[in-house]
Amino acid sequence: MFNRTSFFLILLLCAMPQLLFAQIENGNRPKVGYVLSGGGAKGMAHVGVLKVLEEVGLEPDYITGTSMGSIMGGFYSIGYSAEEISHNIETFDWSIILTNEIPANQVIMRRKGDYSKFLMEMPIYNGKPEFPSGLIEGQKLSEFFSDLTWRQAGVDDFNEFPIPFSCIGTDILKGGIVEMNSGDLSSAMRASMAIPSVFTPVIRDTTHLLVDGGVVRNFPVQEVIDMGADIIIGVYVGFDSNMKPEQLRSLTSVITRVSLLSGAQDVESQIPLVDYMIVPDLTGFTPSSFIRAVEIIERGEVAAREQIDKLRALADSVNALGPPTVKRKLPHHDSILIKEITVLDVNPAMTRFIVATVGLEPDSWITNKQLNTGIDRLFGTLIFDRIDYYFESMDEGYRLVFRIKEKPDSSFKFALHYDNDFGPGVILNYTHLNSLMEDSRLSLTVDISNNPQFKGYYDFYLGKKRKTITSVFATGERDQLPMFNENDVDIGDYHRSYLTGGLAFRQILKLNNQLEAEFYYRYSTLKVSRTIKEFYPELVYLDNFIISSPQLSFGFQHNSYDHLLVPTRGSRVNINYQQSLTTDFISNFNYPDSIDLDNSIEEKMDPYWAVTADFESYIPLGQKVSLNFEFGVGVSANEKPFTDNFYVGGYRYNLRENQVAFVGLNSHELLQGNYLKEKLAIQYQVISNLYLTALGNLIFVSDDNTEFLDDILAFSSDARYIGAGAGITYKTPVGPVSVFLGSRTDTWRPIWYTNIGFTF
């Protein structure tokens, strides 16, 4: 193994560029090659070095790179300046680019409930769940690369770039080095940085399955020599031989470290081939320090400036022998003429769906923004793991080629959660695509806890764009809920169960809008505890209530939140009309001597209705502050089962059937037939992923809809509740962690609302 002392010894041995002097004697301008190593986020130091090399007047004739070096070198090779690369690095949100997530407002309405709510997704092959080949598919990373390599359109040979370029991948099918110098640059860069266990491997053709080139060659000096370089300037930011044990505590970090050991040893054979070595001091940085891009770039610049006299002398000597090779300039495409559209390795029906969803037609001009928007829309259907594209030149215009990776037919997902109302639980999901018929989706989700929940549906899609959905569905939950008396005292718990099953029709209007109609049958029960019976003696012989009825509902949904659980911008609208048809209401009793008594009382209730409307919006007031406003109303018929009232109280996570969140009241504290609610909150992002929120909310409630409006207009204290609260929310890999404290304003009665993990 090598260390920093080895670098300086080798630097002394290589300090005299004899080859340069030979070229001077012959009067020929030597070819200069840059070699940029891998190193994760530390590879951004290459940009600082490139700035100094530009400053002294050096222009490379060839570039090679591995992993992050392939990205910096790839962009530089197609004509980006060091300053332009630096700007892109510093302005892009790496917290998005290095995840599988796209903003939630790019996911179709029907799929939002399944999106970003699980800790891990495992594909199922031959009936067995398997761990994914990497934690990150890198959809946004691929889009980032594709977006910045538009100028490569139609140029397949990397030797025809303004600066000929080559990058390194590792073939895990056959083993060994794969030198990538043709095809589409974006997939080459993505393959070169596919760190094992972190990023999934990349298939560029059927003969290679590629991961990070640093596994076998993290410093591709020999490759730049083979390209024709006479003088080699190497920038090494790779293997950290001084890593401490505490930095290798996670499974991913250990696997990554082990996978790079061979490549680190290979570096020793490459260093003696370098004429000028630059090794930035990156102490304190790790391969994952992407948010410290500015500092890392500065470290690279500092390291290069330490050798600036030597580099300037080299530039003067080389340039004295003549101008550099005239570089081909790649066009800056504002838009591209698409003559044909091809999707690799899919059937014609899938091709039609992809083209229609992206919103493209042959013989049309498109911009990269239009194409990326369409790809996000396609990815938001959640039937693909990754979507790449590239361009092929035609006699006129280009052929747009999509390379897609479909999700496996079956998958298993799981998540963990806890809240102080319903306790801990494990959420499990099974999803199967195209079962029984094409264009279908089966999803079964269960929450295993003391208060279990279940939801399942079978969707099948109609139309070229699959915007019409027919569903068979079933839902269920069992809750242990508190009951409060008129003095706001908890007098015990009651158990409520709720089961539904039926048929639904949904029409996606736009990406974030949906109309729906449902016909279903519901069956629910309610059983009170012994302590409640002691408080209400008239219930002492009551066993349970059973309510069953067919139901109709019609609704409109809109949701443009950027994140479903911790939004910072966007709006949500839910409007629903529910009609209960003839309802059976059965009261069951356990009398001590029931010989002459009827143990059940059955009532037939007339049809009744309920209407709810809710609007909520997050409005950014700056980069870190959002204003959150909500207005909601629910009105229902006076004659109905009391269990069909609205359950008021609790925070916004893990809401149950008919629950209306209200800070200042315990979960399910009020049971009312009508409500009008307003909320105003300020959300502040303290640091990345940590949010502080303060809110106030007001609600009017009433059991009688004929008196409800009068209570509101009179601002009746009997119908009015005002609450306020504050708390923190932190986004973590296991879901949001939220701790909130609230109270009513008329009396100090502190209530804690705690949530850990994803919601059902």
Overview of the structural elements:
It is a single chain. The protein has 760 residues and is α+β, with helices and mostly antiparallel strands. It has 17 helices and 37 strands.
Low-confidence stretches: 1-25
> In angstroms, what separates the terminal alpha carbons?
50 Å
Find the count of extended strands (DSSP E, 2+ residues): 37
Shape: elongated
- Rounded mean pLDDT score: 88
Major beta sheet summary: 16 strands, antiparallel, barrel
* Tally of separate helices: 17
| Biggest sheet: strand arrangement | 17-18-19-20-21-22-23-24-25-28-29-33-34-35-36-37
Q: Which percent band covers the strand fraction?
A: 35-45%
| Class by alpha and beta content | alpha+beta
The portion of residues assigned to helices is: 10-25%
Radius of gyration: 32 Å
Provide the descriptors you would attach to this structure in a database record.
760 residues, alpha+beta, 17 helices, 21% helix
Topology record:
Layout: H1 4-13, H2 18-26, E1 32-36, H3 45-56, E2 62-66, H4 68-77, H5 82-91, H6 94-97, E3 120-125, E4 128-129, E5 134-136, H7 139-148, E6 165-171, E7 177-180, H8 185-192, E8 197-199, E9 202-205, E10 208-212, H9 221-227, E11 231-235, H10 251-259, H11 261-270, E12 276-278, H12 293-305, H13 308-320, E13 336-343, H14 348-358, E14 364-366, H15 368-379, E15 384-393, E16 398-406, E17 410-419, E18 423-433, E19 440-449, E20 453-462, E21 468-484, E22 490-510, E23 513-528, H16 530-535, E24 542-559, E25 570-580, E26 583-589, E27 600-605, E28 608-620, E29 625-636, E30 646-648, E31 659-660, E32 670-672, E33 674-687, E34 690-702, H17 705-713, E35 720-732, E36 735-744, E37 751-757
Parallel strand pairs: 1-2, 1-11, 2-6, 5-8, 11-12, 13-16, 30-31
Antiparallel strand pairs: 3-4, 3-17, 6-7, 6-10, 9-10, 13-14, 15-16, 17-18, 17-37, 18-19, 19-20, 20-21, 21-22, 22-23, 23-24, 24-25, 24-26, 25-28, 26-27, 28-29, 29-33, 30-32, 33-34, 34-35, 35-36, 36-37
Helix pairs in contact: 3-5, 3-12, 4-8, 7-8
